[in-house]
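Schema walkthrough. Field components (list of strings):
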Amino acid sequence: MSLKHALLAILTADSMSGYDLIKYFDGSVTFVWSAPHSQIYPELRRLDSEGLVEVEEVARGKKGTKRIYSINEEGIEEFRRWVNELLPLQPERDPYRLKAAFMEWAEPENARRQLQEHKRHYEASLLRWQQLVDDIGARRVPLLQRRLERRDPREHDRIVAFKEFAFRGEVARAKAEIAWAEEGLRLLDELEAQPPKRRSARRARA
Amino acid sequence: MSLKHALLAILTADSMSGYDLIKYFDGSVTFVWSAPHSQIYPELRRLDSEGLVEVEEVARGKKGTKRIYSINEEGIEEFRRWVNELLPLQPERDPYRLKAAFMEWAEPENARRQLQEHKRHYEASLLRWQQLVDDIGARRVPLLQRRLERRDPREHDRIVAFKEFAFRGEVARAKAEIAWAEEGLRLLDELEAQPPKRRSARRARA
DNA sequence: GTAGTCATGTAAGAGGTTACATGATTAG
DNA sequence: CTAATCATGTAACCTCTTACATGACTAC
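Field assembly_structure (string):
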């Protein structure tokens, strides 16, 4: 049920159309929660039917309609309920770790490719997240600016601090994943340097 | 499609019933991939209908049937295909980070409770994972023992090394999450020590 | 006019959660 | 006889992915 609350979270910053919301989603929220537009538009309709948002319909051409969504009191209450509620920690489900645990079945070059891709992916993420943390600190993020405009200046530091904290968690995660991938690449090097038996997996159950 | 391959992965160690498989799942694979029995039994049937496993049916009482699953050549090929294939990195979706980013909407005690729970959860995970890495290194894990029995001793170190590596990734992740939760708890302490405005979220849009 | 961006949807299918449901064997 | 463990399912529901689909506005 987090998509619903991710949408409400964005709408606590300001009223906007589904399209705008998707842009902000891709701009920063994506880093902690991603969703395609095919999931967002129906979910916004659902928020409306649940009475958590108000909708202003704006005609566009003969048939088109743009919908501007605003969170209402019930929406705010629902969002507040969600942030205050204890969310039980969920079981892990990580396909990369799963694959890594069975890399003896892969050709070394394919195992290496997967780990290189892992490293590359998190290095790119790290840059983006670090940049985002900096931008949040400098209040350079558009959605954050819209949010702060509607809040008492005395609250600003607190609001910013939590956002920095959340994304610093992603920065730390990226660093840990990079180190892990590097460890795996070193392991592959070692195993190839002193091959006890090459292509061993190929004949495993022959 | 990882459940399918997690099941095949376990069956590369040895033939077993769905029930046994679930036990092993809960024993170590759970740490990287979890699934309830309601998902596992149908998936095993599917593996059978796809011709990736052989099934031996054993009568139990008047109506009961126990099914012993064995991976076959096609299953091994499919599993090998999966480990060799490059799995594109997927977008993050982390409800805890999402909540953390909006903690200004929570009562401090509830934010603190969530982070304490986060810390407690990963501390427990850390112990179990560290224990598992040790047990893997000492070949003390039952499923691993069954696996090694059917493999050339010269391959053993390599097989063990990948499993240790995979779970060391989880150990690192747990440590990072504990550190993150501690950072969050410190932040809450600081904000409460010098409250710019208490219960601010409550009146945010009033 | 045409490419880019604005703007919004539907639908099939895969994957996962939660609850319900049943019965056998074994150890005390 | 009774509790624990063995053993296997079904079904409703929710979430997410992927692909298909349409049309308007704006700047060149």
